[in-house]
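Per your request, structure below.
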């Protein structure tokens, strides 16, 4: 991704926070951090934790390795970096931020305000056209562009749990381009981009004030993927 455009939309939240009586509702602060992992490399991957999930639809595989995609604590190697996470803190080689040369890029880290049951939409990505070459019938090449936006969209709705923890409804839609079509007789990587579109949806029960993580593979270890951190804080009604 090149230049990033970041959009945060509270579809009804901003209106809801301003109408009479809204001050009596619980106000939510949702913190999201989206990391792009350029490639996952072989190494130690182990998950452990004590998250209280009421329902999880997030189990899958990363390459040939099974992973628990939604987690509360983890200790593993990502792109050669030792990653540790628990409900209070995430570290990369013992530091708050990943090394700049590790192929781990922070795409977005907003804080979103809403009320219970009100939808939030977060989009981060690039709308800059992707240029590529296409061979014409006469053997010459034409410069063309692909206008498909590349990025990540999160749709979030948070509801009251019965009882105790709150319920997080999360849908992720992502478009990546890490490969190009080959052109016969051309060794340069200038063919049309291959767009990989993926979607993931889960409903989990989470405790307020704790960090949770989600690994979202782009398709294979070599293609990398996303690592998303989320935390929801509940402010008492005034």
């Amino acid at each position: 991704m090149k230049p990033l455009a970041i959009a945060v939309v509270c579809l009804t939240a901003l209106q809801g926070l301003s109408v009479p009586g809204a001050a009596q509702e619980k106000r939510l602060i949702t913190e999201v951090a989206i990391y792009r992992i350029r490639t996952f490399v072989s190494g130690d991957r182990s998950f452990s934790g004590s998250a209280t999930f009421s329902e999880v639809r997030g189990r899958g595989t990363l390459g040939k390795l099974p992973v628990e995609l939604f987690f509360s604590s983890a200790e593993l190697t990502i792109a050669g970096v030792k990653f540790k996470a628990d409900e209070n803190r995430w570290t990369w080689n013992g530091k708050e931020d990943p090394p700049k040369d590790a192929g781990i890029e922070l795409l977005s880290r907003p804080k979103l305000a809403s009320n219970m049951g009100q939808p939030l939409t977060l989009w981060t990505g690039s709308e800059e056209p992707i240029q590529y070459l296409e061979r014409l019938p006469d053997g010459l090449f034409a410069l063309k562009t692909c206008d498909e936006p590349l990025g990540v969209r999160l749709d979030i709705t948070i509801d009251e749990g019965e009882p105790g923890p709150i319920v997080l409804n999360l849908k992720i839609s992502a478009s990546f381009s890490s490969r190009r079509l080959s052109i016969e007789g051309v060794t340069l990587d200038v063919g049309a981009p291959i767009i990989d579109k993926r979607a993931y949806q889960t409903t989990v029960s989470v405790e307020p004030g704790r960090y949770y993580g989600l690994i979202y593979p782009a398709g294979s270890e070599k293609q990398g993927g996303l690592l998303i951190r989320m935390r929801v804080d509940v402010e008492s009604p005034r």
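The first strand starts at residue 5 and ends at 10.

Regards,
D.
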